[in-house]
Amino acid sequence: MVGTASTDSEGTQEGGEAREPLSKPLPHKVPYVTLNNGVAMPQEGFGVFQISGRSKCKKAVMDALECGYRLIDTAQFYRNEGSVGEAIAESGVPREDIFLTTKVWITHYGYDKTIESIRHSLAQLRTDYADLVLLHQGVGNYLWAYRALEDLCHDGVIRAIGISNMEPDRFVDLAKRAHVIPAVNQIENHVFWQQREALGIMREYGIQPESWAPFAEGKNGLFTHPVLTEIGEQYGKTAAQVALRSLVQRDIVVIPKSVHRERIEENIDIWDFELSDSDMNQIDALDTGKSLFGYARMFSSMQRFGLFTAKKKY
Per CATH, the architecture of 32-305 is what? Predict the structure, then answer.
């Protein structure tokens, strides 16, 4: 789940223009973080939440790959794994050069169902392995779902496993029960909710934080915010670029999203400047200490599927 500067109408046209395989040097070189199992993960990637329509999603992913992104983040719930797989297959970028993330949705929790759903996801993505698989929400039968991830990781089907939208009490409980400590926790994190306490606990367990909402979906006027805009003017950068840069300087992985080529390029152009301590202090002061989304959207999904179930033990 990530924000973008604008909302686009859903693309419905099938197909798309043919493209030559990538041959030019990458315009941006994104650094990597090392996960707790030794796997290297790009610190910036491209998210595809709410990019529906096969041709639109495919084009956005191919644009992102051409601009230098090497982390692509999708999910079963997004219903666009097939478009992502098609884009990667036709991009000319070797599969081993791409860090591919997907997430298991709550209706697929449970040991056998989780394994079956991941194999279906891999078929959609046109690959025989995933670099990272996350449990999308910390509700329902997630303990057995996580055990399935552990076994698939052991078998080499998944290179790293993790969680998403888990609050500290739940991910600490999971970490204590698990055979494999989660490598990543993908959470809401942006300049308006910086989650310092949660980040501190994650780091105690060696869990890499990843932001699914680096732009706060444009809330609180992020794209024109005076503090971010003024800081950006010092470096010739936009408020959005400053927001992203502040996160990566706190060692957070970010996955911005856009369907506009110029914004896709803008979002990855954050690696040639560094915010000062003064800049970071000003951005720290923007923290409201609370979510801008709450759990309303998540729980509406839970209610639809009747997933307020008690936690089950292994």
Answer: Alpha-Beta Barrel (3.20)
Please tell me whether 179 is known to bind a ligand: no
Query: What is the structure's pLDDT at 28?
Result: 67
> Which stretches does DSSP call E strand in the chain?
32-34, 40-42, 46-47, 71-73, 99-104, 130-135, 158-164, 184-187, 208-211, 253-254
pLDDT of residue 294: 72
Predicted pLDDT at 24 = 43
Number of helices and strands in the chain (H, E): 11, 10
Residue with tokens 């992913």: 61
Res 52: pLDDT: 83
pTM metric for this prediction:
0.86
- Catalytic residue chosen out of the listed positions 32, 69, 78, 142: 78
Q: What is the pLDDT of residue 17?
A: 39
* Helix pair 111-125, 142-154: axis angle to 10 deg: 60
Please give the Cα distance from 88 to 68 (Å, whole number): 13
CA–CA separation, 106 vs 111, rounded Å?
Answer: 12
Q: CA end-to-end span of the chain, whole Å?
A: 30
Q: What distance in Å separates the CA atoms of residue 70 and residue 136, rounded to the nearest whole number?
A: 21
Asked if 69 is an active-site residue, the reply is: no
pLDDT of residue 29: 85
Residue numbers of the chain with a pLDDT score lower than 70: 1-28, 295-314
With 0-12 / 13-18 / 19 or more C-beta atoms within 10 angstroms meaning exposed / middle / buried, residue 33 is middle
